[in-house]
Input
Amino acid sequence: QVQLVESGGGLVQPGGSLRLSCEVSGLTLDYYYIGWFRQAPGKEREGVSCISSGDGSTYYADSVKGRFTISRDSAKNTVYLQMNFLKPEDTAVYYCALGDLKPVGWFLPGDYDMDYWGKGTLVTVSS
Output
């Protein structure tokens, strides 16, 4: 059984940092794109960042470029999202997802045909 388990969410002040983790069990991270979507209250789900399990290429939404960094630890089958300089508009439930959707599709609006989803972790940026 494939599971994606997120952790690391919480409450942080504007300008602060958090690191999200997504531990994958039940399959190895080969030939997939894995990363993060988020959904803020009253808004559509949107792609945040993804990483290629093949060559390690990384991709980001314009809204987080320069502030967020995605990385992977293949030995631990875990993907991380380091979030710095957080803003109130980053407040959302962050979902880890895995599939063969090409990166361009992660950052366009619409339904995201991913193979697996985590249950999400809440990030709240507030003073």
Summary: The chain has a mean pLDDT of 94. The CA atoms of residues 6 and 22 lie 4 Å apart. Helices lie at 103-106.
